[in-house]
Amino acid sequence: MSAGPTPPEHHVAYPNVLVGAEIDGDRSLSADAVVVGTGAGGATVAARLRAAGLDVLMLEEGGLHRTETFTTDPTAMVRRLYRDAGTSMILGKPPIIFAEGKCVGGSTVINGGMSWRTPARVLEHWAHDLGLDETGPAAMEPYFDEAERILHVEPNHEDTYGRNTHLFVEGARALGWPVARAPRNMRRCVGLNNCALGCPTGAKQAMHVTEVPRALADGAGLVTHARVDRVVWRGTTAVGVRGRFVDDRGRARGRLQVDAPLVVLAAGARHTPGILLRSRLRARQIGRGLHTHPNAKCVGIFDERIDPWKGTHQAFHVHHFLDEGILIGYAAIPPGLLAAALPGMGPESAEYMSLYNHMLTAATLVEDDTEGRVRLGPDRQPFMHQTLGPADVERLHRGVTLTAELLFAAGARRVLLPFSDLPALAHVGELPRIAARDRRRGSTELMTVHIMGTARMAADPARGATDASGAVWGTRGLVIADASVLPSSIGVNPQETIIAMALRNADRWLEARGTRRVAGGGA
Amino acid sequence: MRSRARPLSPAAQRILVAALVAIRPRGHGFDQDVDDDVLASIEEFFPHLPAPMRLAFPLGLHLLEWAPLVVVRRATRLSRMSPDETRHYLERALAFGGPLGALVLGVRALVLLNFYQHPAVLETMQVDWAGRRDELVARRAELLQS
């Protein structure tokens, strides 16, 4: 690096941080509120509660990785920032590759920065069909407004568009499909397209450069490398959490207990129900309702050179089919990660990857109706399973067909598909082969970073693990602030929904405690 | 090979090396001599895997070593097959599905990820993401200052 100017995100101050990996022996701490997890929900709530005057302690299982240390090497960054080095899997037919962040800032550090509001039809479903008060579009609007202030949401500048962006837009427009300019949480993105490995430029306004330092500067505390195993009870009242300090590799060190009259779980839709299940809660709904918003990739191979690594990440989406539960986007994926997702080994892989600079990777994300589940395995760690039902499988095939059609319309001379028994199409006339494919044959390569719903809010305990404010049914002092509480699949990237819902619910908890709510406190 | 402590036994490492040689790309400009680096980079992943996977992986490699009899009806071991034979065997095992298929999928992903992200390979591919990082960090800082 030259000694020139550096972005402000390279100089963020992190006061009041205890590095759990460096602590010898056991520790007992206390606070008014302990927040487990520092992703979209946890960091937002921590800043909110602190602004309301509570003594707040954040616990994070991963480490604090500063923006200026982020590189473009996926082999290193995946080990540092991802849970299980990115090897998580949702079991089922087909299995779904799953990735989530394990670091201060959680998955906001490794997401694409998409900041969509929850579609109105989804909010209306929650308010009217599920009976969740104040979740309709009008009631949620102020929270989305505030979430967008926190996230600093803006569209990409045109000077960040790469050739892949132009081709994606041209393909959609050639088919008469409107494209939506993606709102993203960033401050003057310059188009490095390294979002999934941590943004080295600091443009992405992830929680480790926004709400976490904001809460810390306001007096909150943070313990990194702190893995929470379970909630501590007095009767049915949560009075704290218990866990272990861990090292960078997750090996257990000393014991940790935090006493707090308010316990906020924000460990994500896999580990939050895991903590609940380990905490001797037996409510039937805990862990049920898993939605995965799976995505399937299609890779267009073009005659022209695209250099997909030059230009921003997903400046546009196609939302034209959102009412069908289908979203279409595109991404530049580093060679090593893309090769693992393409077919072939040895010379076959080499043949595909020799065309890397001529590839445009697009993906369809489908809103899944099928409910999966999180359970505890023999090692007491949560595992997920979901087998997509027939309606979801059909939606997936429709989404792949539309995505391949877009790529051909953009000029692709061949499109690689996510089906092992139908790996590629040579021309647009072959598109019907996707719909005609035998669903029982071969495998489909799917992945997701959008799991939700495993402690969903419901109007009664027979239908969800939490009430309409994210408080766990049948308990006191235990609330949830992550994608677990979302009552159904939302069909879009969930970051902004998680934050808006966390803000809404935090206001409710504060009101229930008789604490003054903090209008705009996080902004 | 280097002498530092490695996470796999010599036998498991021998199997992994045989799989690596079969899986790693060849031809089309991908003939870089980087196997040692790729293997070292793969081994750096092991400590970060969840405990069940860390325990199961070496066992899985031994299963893969002896499974040619079942998968391709050949009374031999993976580490004694030629790279082409091994590749054919691994492709069949992948199609087999189940735990064996998942294991091959995982090994394949580790090999390809660490091969294609090797600096020498990236240079051949004319992909300079790292150079672009330095350039754009400075560019953004200037834009915010102006």
Mean pLDDT of chain A: 95
Tell me what portion of residues of chain B adopts beta-strand conformation: under 5%
Largest sheet of chain A: 6 strands, parallel
Distance between the termini of chain A: 33 Å
Q: What's the number of helices of chain B?
A: 8
Radius of gyration of chain B: 19 Å
* Number of DSSP strand runs of chain B: 0
Report the top-level CATH class of the largest domain in chain A.
Alpha Beta
Structural class by secondary-structure content of chain B:
mainly alpha
Please, what is the CATH homologous superfamily of the largest domain in chain A? FAD/NAD(P)-binding domain
* Count of domains of chain B: 1
Query: What percent of residues of chain A are in strands?
Result: 15-25%
How many strands appear in the DSSP assignment of chain A?
25
Low-confidence spans of chain B: none
What order do the SSEs of chain B take from the amino end to the carboxyl end, as H and E? HHHHHHHH
Shape of chain A: globular
The neighbouring-strand order within the major sheet of chain A is 1-10-4-3-14-25
Number of domains of chain A: 2
Secondary structure tally, helices of chain A: 12
Relative helix content of chain B = 55-70%
Which stretches of chain A are poorly predicted, pLDDT < 50 over at least 5 residues?
Answer: 519-523
Structure description:
- The complex is a heterodimer of chains A (523) and B (146).
- With 523 residues, chain A is α/β, with parallel strands linked by helices.
- Chain A has 2 domains: 11-65 and 103-152 and 205-286 and 452-513, FAD/NAD(P)-binding domain (3-Layer(bba) Sandwich), CATH 3.50.50; 158-193 and 292-448, Cholesterol Oxidase, domain 2 (2-Layer Sandwich).
- Helix content of chain A is 26%, strand content 22%.
- Chain A contains 12 helices and 25 strands.
- In chain A, helix 1 packs parallel to helix 6 and helix 1 (40-51) runs parallel beside helix 12 (495-513).
- The longest helix of chain A has 20 residues, at 390-409.
- The radius of gyration of chain A is 22 Å and the shape is globular.
- Mean pLDDT of chain A is 95; it is low at 519-523.
- With 146 residues, chain B is mainly α.
- Chain B has one domain (10-145).
- Chain B contains 8 helices and no strands.
- At the A-B interface, helix 2, helix 8 and helix 9 of A face helix 2, helix 3, helix 5, helix 6 and helix 7 of B.
